[in-house]
Design a protein that fits this description.
5 helices; 7 strands; alpha+beta; 157 residues
């Protein structure tokens, strides 16, 4: 028996000038917040996947790409997800993180997206790290640390 692979995935840290991160409350899990993310489809590169996920989950591709992580980060799915379709196929996810700034103001309208998220809000990276589900905390922490210079507030404010 071969071990299940990691699913290739992208995660998007969308920031504003105050250094806050756009977070979404999952549509399927009330009170669970995360950044937009999704799998890399066959025939797609990571940047194409990132732009597609932005369109699907946030409703725009009008962003300035500020950085991409220097490495990929892996997490394993927890036992409580074992019966989900994704966990039956993959052991976890291997993610490339992108930092982007949206060109438009305000929050996305969840009604105009793919329903991944029920609501959006801006929060500090520190607050998000406290609220993210435990099995993603370490990869978020590492990615935020590696990309800190691109996430910090705009000094011109």
């Amino acid at each position: 028996m071969t071990e299940r692979p990691y699913r290739k995935n992208v995660a998007i840290i969308i920031i504003n000038d105050a250094g806050q991160v756009l977070t979404g409350e999952r549509g399927d899990l009330q009170g669970v917040w995360q950044i937009p993310q999704g799998g890399v489809d066959p025939g797609e590169n990571e940047r194409q996947a990132m732009l597609r996920e932005l369109q699907e989950e946030v409703g725009t591709t009008e962003v300035e790409i500020l950085a991409e992580s220097p490495r990929r980060y892996r997490y394993d799915f927890p036992d409580w997800l074992a019966e989900s379709a994704i966990a039956k196929e993959f052991r976890g996810q291997e993610q490339r993180y992108y930092v982007v700034r949206m060109w438009r103001e305000g929050l996305p309208d969840p009604q105009k997206t793919d329903s991944e998220f029920r609501s959006f809000q801006w929060m500090s990276a520190e607050d998000l790290l406290e609220q993210i589900v435990d099995f993603k905390q370490e990869v978020y922490r590492l990615a935020f640390q590696d990309l800190a210079e691109h996430i910090r507030p705009n000094p011109a404010l």
